[in-house]
Amino acid sequence: METGYRRLFFYREKNLSPISKLRLNQIFREFDYLGFMAEAWILKEDFMEAMDDLNITEIDRIMADCLTSEHYRIKQF
Question: For FRET with 46, which of 2, 36, 63, 65 sits at 20 to 30 Å CA-CA?
């Protein structure tokens, strides 16, 4: 994966252009065989949305989802 595309993971989905969203989906399809990048992306988006809403219940749910992940880095989150 090209290093220039790493920035895509830092931006919120709502701030990505349609072309950037397309490229991010391509990255998930081509390089994310086990689905861990997509899982981390979804958790990040959910967490940021819950933070925007100050929804503690949702944040607790997201943290519980992290603990059930098969990927050790997501569990560490």
Answer: 2
Q: Which residue matches tokens 């997501």?
A: 74
Helix (H, G, I), strand (E, B) or coil at 10: coil
pLDDT digits (tens, 9 = 90+) for 23-76: 988 988 888 888 888 888 888 899 999 999 999 999 999 998 888 888 888 888
Instruction: Report which residue type is found at 39.
Output: E
CB-based contacts of 34, cutoff 8 Å, min separation 6: 70, 71
pTM: 0.76
Cβ(46)–Cβ(58) below 8 Å: yes
3-state secondary structure of 45: helix
